[in-house]
């Protein structure tokens, strides 16, 4: 597929070919297959004597959460007429291939619930890795809040911009994306857009911010843990993967409603000193999600399941 014209720019238009592409991979001679899947990889074809473990980021989002997906995409009328036919085809394929993996691993508790609801199978939760060593605690912090995100509509950065327009507090936003112009038009002078930065610059901003703002609902969310690795707390929406990673009062706090006013109240409680966050305790919490922890857990899981699989074989 890499030879198809305009694939990188128009990859969404080639979606009907993806099932065929993943099924065409020559994998039948392997003993163990691990798929890293947010949509199609779980449909890979294994040999009859092989074990397939799927590390699942979520069941196919645009199929199983179609209404919300379409609302967040800028689609023309013709596409909206054709899309339901494609979605029906993909839903059929997704269900037809749900039993190709022998085991599913989910990246978070909320994804485990989706896997159970959509595929009817139980999944183990193994959290994605964070490279803790990339981040350091600073002896002082500056007077600003921070967002690090791809600037897409579904990330809910507009909610944070609206909240900080009301608060008047300094907010720095790192990242780029198609929603940038809209956000800039919304923002007041206390909000600055820094664009894309390299990893070291991002790590420095993590360490210097008063707190990270995490307004969206993610399947897991690495960014809050990166800020935690730098000793900084998170103000996060109460949903998605943040429910697995944020312990209120230890490494962050929640706002409960997806409204700017709810975030405003959470920031005010943070400003008023309601919480006594300790940078070393915050970093210690983040270390539970370190990449070495992930490597050990995934290796043990695969080893145990492969041994179990071999013993079951006739």
Estimate nothing, just give the exact number of structural domains: 2
Estimated structural class: alpha/beta
Helix content: 40-55%
Can you name the CATH architecture of the largest domain?
3-Layer(aba) Sandwich
- Mean model confidence by pLDDT: 94
- Give the CATH topology of the largest domain: Rossmann fold
How is the biggest beta sheet arranged? 4 strands, parallel
Low-confidence stretches: none
Find the CATH superfamily of the largest domain. Glycogen Phosphorylase B
Gross geometry: globular
- Number of distinct helices: 13
Strand order across the largest sheet? 1-2-3-4
Question: What Rg, in angstroms, do the CA atoms define?
Answer: 21 Å
Order of helices and strands: HEEHHHEHEEHEHEHEHEHEHHH
Provide the β-strand percentage band.
5-15%
Q: What is the terminal separation in angstroms?
A: 38 Å
Number of strands: 10
What is the CATH C-level name of the largest domain? Alpha Beta
């Amino acid at each position: 597929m890499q030879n198809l014209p305009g694939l990188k720019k128009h990859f969404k238009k080639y979606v009907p070919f993806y099932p065929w592409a993943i099924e065409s991979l020559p994998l039948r001679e392997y003993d163990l297959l691990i798929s890293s899947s947010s949509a199609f990889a779980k449909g890979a074809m294994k040999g009859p004597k092989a074990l397939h473990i799927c590390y699942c980021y979520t069941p196919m989002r645009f199929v199983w959460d179609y209404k919300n997906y379409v609302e967040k995409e800028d689609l023309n009328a013709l596409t909206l007429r054709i899309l339901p036919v494609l979605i029906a085809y993909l839903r059929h394929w997704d269900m037809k291939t749900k039993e190709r993996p022998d085991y599913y691993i989910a990246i978070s508790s909320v994804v485990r619930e989706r896997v159970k609801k959509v595929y009817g199978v139980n999944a183990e939760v193994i959290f994605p890795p964070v490279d803790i060593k990339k981040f350091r605690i600073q002896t002082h912090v500056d007077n600003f809040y921070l967002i690090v995100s791809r600037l897409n509509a579904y990330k809910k950065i507009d909610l944070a911009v609206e909240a900080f327009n009301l608060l008047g507090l300094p907010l720095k936003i790192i990242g780029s994306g198609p929603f940038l112009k809209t956000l800039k038009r919304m923002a007041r002078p206390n909000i600055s857009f820094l664009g894309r930065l390299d990893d070291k610059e991002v790590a420095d901003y993590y360490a210097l911010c008063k707190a990270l703002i995490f307004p969206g609902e993610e399947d897991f969310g690495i960014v809050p843990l990166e800020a935690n690795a730098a000793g900084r707390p998170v103000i996060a929406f109460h949903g998605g993967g943040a429910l697995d990673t944020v312990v209120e009062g230890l490494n962050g706090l929640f706002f409960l409603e997806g409204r700017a006013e709810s975030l405003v109240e959470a920031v005010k409680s943070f400003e008023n000193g309601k919480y006594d966050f300790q940078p070393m305790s915050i970093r210690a919490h983040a270390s539970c999600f370190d990449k070495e922890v992930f490597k050990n857990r995934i290796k043990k899981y695969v080893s145990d399941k492969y041994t179990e699989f071999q013993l079951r074989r006739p």
